[in-house]
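Raw record, unedited: Replication initiation protein
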Amino acid sequence: MTVTAAPPAGLDPATWQDFLRVAGLPGFDRWNHQVRRTGGCSDPIHLVGSTTTLDPATGQVLYSYDTSDEPGGRLRVACGNRRASRCPACAWTYAGDTYQLILSGLTGGKGVPETVTDHPRVFATLTAPSFGPVHNRPTAGRCRCGTAHSEDAPELGTPLDPETYDYAGAVLWNNHASDLWRYVTIYLRRELAARVGITQRELRERLRVSYGKVAEYQKRGAIHFHAVIRFDGPDGPDTAPPAWATAGLLEDALRAAAARATVTLPAAGDQPARTLRWGTQLDVQPIGAFGDGEELTEQAVASYVAKYATKAAETTGTVDRRIGNKEALVLLDVPEHPARLIAACLDLHPLYPDRKLRDWAHMLGFRGHFSTKARRYSTTLGALRDARADYRAQQERRDLGLSDLDTDPEATTLVLAHWTYAGHGHTPGESWLAAQIHRDITQARETARQARADLTDDTGEW
């Protein structure tokens, strides 16, 4: 029998019919449970296999599981993709982990002492230089084209004259942006030592510089970095920095280091020799302790960094996957400005083969990690994921009636498992339903977060 119920507004009938088919299957409740455990992942990994938990002393089977009893004979697990354009659910989790990583380096927690709030910290933004005038919204007056653009004007960030815009310089700068940041971290320590009047070795014995950073694309397609930079004592966040290590010293040395950082490219083919450097717009702001004394709070900084940890070049109009040739730009309907940047990557690849510009053309040349940190800044994303996995494993053990490894150190089990990749993704109806599940989960957690906030007073005490 064909179900003819009308689909919700905006949903195509074919997807609605597929959803009704899925909802009518015998294993729908179990499928729904699986997808909820992934957080509503839009592209889950399908696994087939089994796991058996044994008592190593007696060989007794304590628990066994086989995917043959699951819907379609498969177990669905989250894809873990950080890109919001690929999977909003997993990107939401990634953003939350990034928030905790950055915040713990500012306020303590996750293995970092709370005393780091007393350490000098700044929030710095390093930008690319100009490659030609673009449409913008200046704080005063109009754009150079004579127009007062709206905030969502599509021409923002695009060149006033595409024919004279330095597209080659723009993608080469993106491609070397991570190298420029590495030079900043090197020169920063040199500048600090010079200003204090000690050697770099002596500086390491008295001071540590830690950071966490994230990359963001400007509308013009150029990368810029947001970095949280902190002074620590010689043993990291557990020790206080010297009294002379002030936020003012950090800002002064950072500006000097950014001015020194350059990457020189030799001439190649029709391309001239270039000296790549940072733009002149370097913004450095001190971070206040819980909003006391400074406008920029730890929570605001962590939220800002986490916001951009899940975004990439697709925010400029390009795509979130590799492009093999220029013909694909037409088929994918890529806007003119990002299309020219991608074409420049493809054209420049033979001249700079070691830079892999063709492989990173969809990223407008950028080939670095979007979020990185110094080893001693705070916890790691891996540690946060492991903690979450351990928590869920303990929950599952309690649900199965197995010994709690945290409360019973003598408890040991032997787990035999075999898993095989069996595909990924959803049908159209499943995809729509997973999106609704993700929406419900995020709304519920936001409601709970707001409720917790309402129960605290202005000092943050319950």
